[in-house]
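To close the section, here is one more complete example, presented without commentary so you can practise reading it yourself. The ligand is zinc ion.
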Amino acid sequence: SLLPILRYPDPRLNKVAEPVTVFDEQLKTLVADMAQTMYDAPGIGLAAPQVDVHRQVIVIDISEDRNTLQVFINPEIVTASAEKAPYDEGCLSVPGIYEEVERPARVTVRAQDVNGKFFDIQAEGLMAVCLQHEIDHLKGFMFVDYLSQLKRNRIKTRMLKEEREKKREK
Ligand SMILES: O=C(O)C[C@@H](Cc1ccccc1)C(=O)SCC(=O)c1ccccc1
Ligand SMILES: [Zn+2]
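Output:
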């Protein structure tokens, strides 16, 4: 089912997500709901805290045909290149805002799949950007935290204004 996505600056987006320890049917249902929510948004990634579930679960699909779902449970960055790369990032919790963020160009991530099996992935390009963006969500960080305080405050003001307008429409 579609899950409501929390909007910045909702304080629940700053909570640190708990590790997953039980790999059961409920986890599979959460992953399916997150995938459906991501495709519907549409987005190329989604982290569980964005749907107010504070567990270390991420879904990503950067494929052209939007038919290649990747699931990362309890992910951690084990190596990151010294070389950085800029990218205009967006976020489903900060709709309509795209700002340049610099991150390590290549990362190695260790994670578990939905059955609890460990795997390592080497990522570069958009996959590296998206993985770091989603893993930040699990730590209670968002891409706006890398911007200047001036820019972040302008975005916060705009999001709050849109939230008020949305409520008035109802
Ligand atoms: O908020 C999120 O985690 C989802 C976010 C992931 C992301 C995008 C770009 C750079 C880093 C991380 C998004 O998917 S925002 C929407 C978006 O970028 C997009 C949507 C449809 C097609 C292609 C891109
Ligand atoms: Zn995001």
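Once you have examined the tokens, check your reading against these statements. The first helix runs from residue 25 to 40. The mean pLDDT is 97.
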